[in-house]
Prior knowledge:
Shape: globular
Number of strands: 28
Helix content: 25-40%
Number of helices: 13
Radius of gyration: 23 Å
Largest sheet: 6 strands, antiparallel
Structural class: alpha/beta
Mean pLDDT: 92
Amino acid sequence: MINNNFFEFFLKPVFSKKDSLDVAFCIRNKMYSYSQLYDAVEQIWNVVKDLPEDLIGLYATDDIRTYASIIALWSCGKTYIPLNPKQPKERHIEVIKSVGSHFILSADKKYNIDVESVNMVPTKEVLMDGYSRKESVEFSKVPESTLAYIIFTSGSTGKPKGVPITRGNVAAFIDSMNHIGLDITKEDKCLQPFDLTFDFSVSSYVIPLAKGASIYTIPQKAIKFSYIAGLLEDYHLTVLQMVPSMVRNMLPYMDEVELNSVRYNIFCGEALTGKVLKAWHQANPDMISYNMYGPTEDTVFCTYYKIDKNNVADPLASNDIICIGKTFVNSNLLLLDNHDQIIKDENMEGELCLCGNQLTPGYWNNEKENLAKFLEIDGKRYYRSGDLCYYGEDKNLMFVSRKDFQVKINGFRVELGEIENRYSEISGGNFCVVMPYANEQGNTELAIVIEGDEYDFKAHKTQLANELPAYELPAKWLFIKSIPLNTNGKVDRKAIKQHFEL
């Protein structure tokens, strides 16, 4: 069957503007119209449609050709696997091998994976001006179960986990966003501050493009919070999507940040505190904010809580953490206690489990994780989020904490076990514990606590940097004679935190 939903919600709206001079993207202060975007899509489509594989790697650079590559791949029923050029090539090789791909699109010639069986497909030569159209783009008739993308996240075993998301999942997400009250139009100027390996980027480009709006991106090497301030001043952005840590970094400079043009804020990726929210809204009381929640496995966002001038002074919160609200129209949820019994009463903590049309088919080639993370209740398939929540006022969800040791660093999901596993391998088996802590700005960083005598760890630090993304690297290296254990024989993280005053 043809994927009518995905076509109607995304591809059709984008291609309906192929002759429009309206701005589609502003990248490094250069404007690209919807017409130019289409020209790039058509050129790339004529290359990728004949590739003998459906799973295609994509070096996710801040380039109009990168976004055009995504649309071209989707137009011919293919799937993109984003690769962050800032991450180690060893990680790229691991990802590409795991999906069995032999092709990587790249808008920059300097990015080359240097693996004999992998072919680089350059898009740098795609013309943005002077291109003569062939009007040849034809949409492939594919089912909604066709994968739209696979994002690889940090894995507790030391290997990244692939999360495949279908076209039907993306269509359900767009439909859900259409139901929450966001009135985005072609007049809006929308911020896209995320790497394309971060699933929140999907919302930041899919929703604006589906509405014919303009998208303003951030160069990968830029300091995000200062660049955002510059975009607000120069272009008067109207729709923002940000991780709360970005806002925290901007708070000391609020006198210089111009927010009067902003209509909507979407906060995501980390717990939003009342302190951050109220300081942000003081600059423009007429703004409307949404506190969004959602794991990669449930296609970007699946719950929301609306904040405006009617409730910003006293938002629903617990321990200053703003409520994550209620479920999207295409999602559903429940809370389970330690015995997997459904919790219905208010104020009782349980693990948040998610189901619905946005839910991934399951981890890529990882049956062990699928068995551990997915379960069936009353004939419906649910995902165990690992987040502890409870029902608050009017059945709104209140976030408590992580059930495991997964944390968010600048919005990126990090499994502490992955870092511990990698360090153990490169150090020859040294025992360590990785701990999150708040730095002076209130943002989360990591400390690695190593059991044994202090030593010159520079070589290990360098090797770790070659194997892990920058956001997973410990900022502090600490040593302790013996890792403390609790009465159950487990690592006593609370004792470690107290010992080092983290």
